[in-house]
Every structure is written in structure tokens, then in C-alpha cells.
């Protein structure tokens, strides 16, 4: 996957950007359209799914999903997808439309208000803040996290550790986590969601490294601020 993205970005600069694990935004060149694709863990054996579409007009999700289904078996998949999408888009767009879609850093702050934040923990200049949000699917969890980390401050965090636990409509429990470089932190965060029996929630703990190693204390701070946010959000009792 990384190699495929690198090849496409060598042709179209910053055309494909990773938002979260298995979630990528594809900016369609010379257009105001961007498409979020959720890739399954067994890609390329199975095709990705259109998570969302950012376009000035019209609903393109179904059309783009058809393009995915029709082009999936071809080589250089992402490049082929971009080429096929370009062929169905209008040749001209309204002047107010931004060519290339919404780029990283231009959004994110408005999404913070949706999240419930913990109190800030500071230890030897390292800073920890947790944020929680109610979600109802893994896809929604990934999209919300991807939006959150567009914020300039959060995007500069050394780690944005994530975990989510969701009950699907069919009763199946879906849960996963992401260390984001802080080894074992994601699984500890997910363990907290399990022992507190939190359901339909995603939690993100941002850590800005202060230059001094904290050892096991870092895990304590991650859990404390995560629990604080979960209590404030009404997911668990104090």
C-alpha cells in the first residue's frame, strides 16, 4: 500500500494522504473533489470502500463506488481510480470551488467542538490530553479521528493514541486501537474501554513529548486523562 501511494504521489504531488490506519484521502487533480477511501486489512485481495466524498455539488459516493468495483481488478489501482474519476467529473467548476479540494491544515478546528476533552496533564514538559466522541461504526470512528487530527495543534502531537469499541446493529462487538508510535499504548487504552464496558465510543489521547523519558508514568497519564474524558462524556461514572 505504501509503495502504491508513493508512486501516485510522485505523479500527482500530495494527491493521496493517509488520515488514519487504512483510511486515505485521494485529492482528484485539477478539481475541487476529494474522496476518502477505507481500505480493508486484506487489501489488495478485497477492494476499498468509499467512506465519504467532498465535492461542491451532487452526491458522488455511489458513482465513485461503482468505479472502484469496476476498476479494482486492474493494476496500479489508485492511479486507475483517479484516472476514471477524472473522466466523469465536469470539465468546468464554479469559480468559488477550490481546485484540489480541502487540503490538510485548512480544517480540523471546527471538529474539536464535537469532542469532549479531559483536563490537561503535564509531567516533565510532556503534555497529555484525551478526547472522546460517541460513534456507531468503525468507519465513523476512523473518519472522526481523521477530521480531528487535521487541527494544527493536534497534528503536531508526538502521538495521537486511539481506541474504539462499538456495538454493531447485528449485535457484534467491534473494537480496535492504534498506538501511533507509542508502543503498547493503544492496547492499554482499549483495555480501559473494556474494563469500564464503554460502548459506541472512540477515544484519542494526544501526547506532546517534552524531551524527558517518562517510563511507565506515561501509561498512567494516558489512562488517567482518558478516564477523565470518559467520565465527562457520561460513558462511565466517576
Automatic annotation (TrEMBL):
Q: Where is the RWD domain?
A: 2-89
Gene3D superfamilies found in the cross-reference section: Impact, N-terminal domain
Where, subcellularly, is it found?
Cytoplasm
- Pfam families xref list: Impact_N (PF01205), RWD (PF05773)
| InterPro entries, per the entry | Impact, Impact_N, Impact_N_sf, Ribosomal_Su5_D2-typ_SF, RWD_dom, UBQ-conjugating_enzyme/RWD
- Where would I find the Impact N-terminal domain in this sequence? 124-230
Record has GTP-binding as a keyword: no
Q: Does the keyword DNA damage apply?
A: no
User: Record's Gene Ontology CC terms?
Assistant: cytoplasm
Highest taxon of the lineage: Eukaryota
- In which broad location class does this protein mainly occur, judging by the first location in its UniProt entry? cytoplasm
Q: Which CDD domains match?
A: RWD_ScYIH1-like (cd23822)
Extract one GO BP annotation from the record.
GCN2-mediated signaling
Q: Which UniProt keywords apply?
A: Cytoplasm, Repressor, Stress response, Translation regulation
| Family according to the record | Belongs to the IMPACT family.
Please report the name of this protein according to its UniProt entry.
Answer: Protein IMPACT
- The organism encoding this protein is Wickerhamiella sorbophila
Q: What is the lineage of its organism?
A: Eukaryota, Fungi, Dikarya, Ascomycota, Saccharomycotina
